[in-house]
Structure formats: C-alpha cells, structure tokens
Design goal:
The protein has one domain: Peptide Methionine Sulfoxide Reductase, Chain A, CATH 3.30.1060.10. Helix 3 packs parallel to helix 4. With 185 residues, it is of the alpha+beta class. The protein has 6 helices and 8 strands. It has a 6-stranded mixed sheet with strand order 7-6-1-3-2-8. The chain has a two-stranded antiparallel sheet with strand order 4-5.
C-alpha cells in the first residue's frame, strides 16, 4: 500500500452508494472507499434525512487512490462507465436528489483535469452530462451498516453493472498498466 501522504481523494456520487463503493473497491490502485453524504445542508445528516431530501445531500463515495497507480482521469473514466450521466436525480431504480450524480473535488488544481473528462463524455454523448461538477462543501460518513454493504450482503440491490470492470481493466491494459494483484470482477 502507498504511504498515506501519497493518497489522494475524489468524491463520486453515482446513485446508491452501495454499488459505487463496491465497484471502486475492486480496482487495483484504489486504497479506500467510504460511503457517505456530500454537500449536505444539514450537519451530520442521517440516512433518513438524506433519503427524504431534507439534507439535499448526495449519496457519495469518498475514493482514496494512489496516484502512482491510477490517475484521476482514469478513475473518472471508470466512474462514467457505471452511471447514466444524462439522468437527472435518478440512477437505476433509485430516484430523488440524493441519487444525483456528481464529481466533487477538494483541490481546485484538479478541476481542469476533471473538466477534460466531462468534455470527453459530452463529445461521446453529444449532450452535456447532467452530472454535477462542484467543489466539495462537506462530507459526512454514512452509518456503519452502509460501509461495504455488498460485501456484507452479497446479492443485495445494486444498479451498477460490475461487468464494466472488465472493460475498464482492458482500457488500462491497452494504456500499458500492469497489475500487482488480480482483479475481482
């Protein structure tokens, strides 16, 4: 594992955080995933406050990654493989503002790199993504039962297509990546 000082973070809202968390946990170079609530209008909101839209927070995954193994661009490309970037306040069967998609950054110097990936997505789709691109205002860790939910409950509800991990792996291999550990696809 990389030294803690070398770990960077990006916050990704892709609908229900159970699947997004599990998807990223399977990618070599990702060192941590934490389910939580981003850009909340309430301090330390509960799941019930988020789901009922009281907090106006997005279910979000804090993704810790080793930039010597994966770039931010690569992580965002993996993210766009599992969301419908044109959908507003909905992913899979989940609907409401808490299920909106978004990329939330803490380092302003990363915004041009993130915007470049958004432009790639727009060119590919022929439309501007509905996915938010905003600075992170706040992030509150979700309740413990949400952490690693699909590891604890295999076969639980999930809108994420994990077959897209194979597509992402193949893209990385074409770019010359070699992996120290096998992928869990």
């Amino acid at each position: 594992m990389a030294a803690a000082a070398n770990i960077k973070f990006i916050y990704l809202a892709g609908g229900c955080f159970w699947g997004v968390s599990e998807y990223f946990s399977r990618i070599p170079g990702i060192v941590s995933v934490t389910a939580g609530y981003a850009n909340s209008k309430l301090d330390s909101p509960s799941y019930e406050q988020v789901k009922s839209q009281q907090a106006d927070a997005a279910e979000t995954v804090k993704v810790g990654y080793d930039p010597s193994k994966l770039t931010l661009t690569e992580i965002l490309r993996a993210f766009f493989l599992i969301i419908d970037p044109l959908s507003v306040n909905r992913q899979g069967e989940d609907s409401g503002r808490s299920y909106r998609t978004g990329v939330y950054y803490t380092d302003l110097s990363e915004k041009p790199e993130i915007a470049k990936v958004f432009s790639e997505v727009e060119r590919k789709l022929g439309k501007q993504p509905a996915t938010e691109l905003l600075p992170l205002e706040n992030f509150f860790k979700a309740e413990e039962y949400h952490q690693d939910y699909l590891k604890k409950h295999p076969g639980g509800y999930c809108h994420v297509n994990f077959k897209n991990l194979q597509i992402f792996k193949e893209e990385l291999e074409k770019a010359g990546h070699r992996f120290e550990k096998p992928w869990q696809i």
